[in-house]
Amino acid sequence: MNHRNKNNHLGRKYGHRKSLLSNIASSLIKKKRIFTTLAKAKALRKYVEPIITKSKIDTTHSKRNIFSYLKDKIAVSELFKDTFQKVRERTGGYTRIIKIGFRTGDHASLSLIELVDFNKIYTHKKEKKSIRIRRSKKKNKKLNNE
């Protein structure tokens, strides 16, 4: 039974899994999209989204906390740049996983994981809403009586 076992251990011991997720998360932050297996992408989503949430607070303490997860100065500095301003405004759901297909060697399911705000295809400009004119019943009655 698999009750109360939330984490996918990815067939690795704790130290190996921790460094794997750290490296994949830092490369996701640097490159904005990466190709990986579906299981790693789902594990990475649970790992990287709290890190991005912590990057909303621009203090030295939060930078050091994030550095303890990522172990990469370039990725940490990338999180606090102005290019991530769109991400800071978002309340959650920073990543998107798209299933690609299967790997030819071992038939593992491949996927693309990307940061949502950096994809030009799926993000579209918000269209201006047309102004709706509310017509009250009082005016209509006056027009009908005349």
TrEMBL record:
Membrane-spanning parts: none
GO biological process: translation
Molecular function via GO: structural constituent of ribosome
Highest taxon in the source lineage: Bacteria
One Pfam family recorded for the sequence: Ribosomal_L17
Keyword field: Ribonucleoprotein, Ribosomal protein
Gene Ontology annotations for the cellular component aspect, listed alphabetically: cytosolic large ribosomal subunit
SUPFAM superfamilies documented for this protein: Prokaryotic ribosomal protein L17 (SSF64263)
PROSITE patterns: RIBOSOMAL_L17
Record has Transcription as a keyword: no
Family stated for the protein in its record: Belongs to the bacterial ribosomal protein bL17 family.
Subunit structure: Part of the 50S ribosomal subunit. Contacts protein L32.
HAMAP family for this protein: Ribosomal_bL17
PANTHER family: LARGE RIBOSOMAL SUBUNIT PROTEIN BL17M, RIBOSOMAL PROTEIN L17
Protein name, as recorded: Large ribosomal subunit protein bL17
Species this chain originates from: Blattabacterium cuenoti STAT
Biological classification of the source: Bacteria, Pseudomonadati, Bacteroidota, Flavobacteriia, Flavobacteriales
Gene name of the encoded protein: rplQ
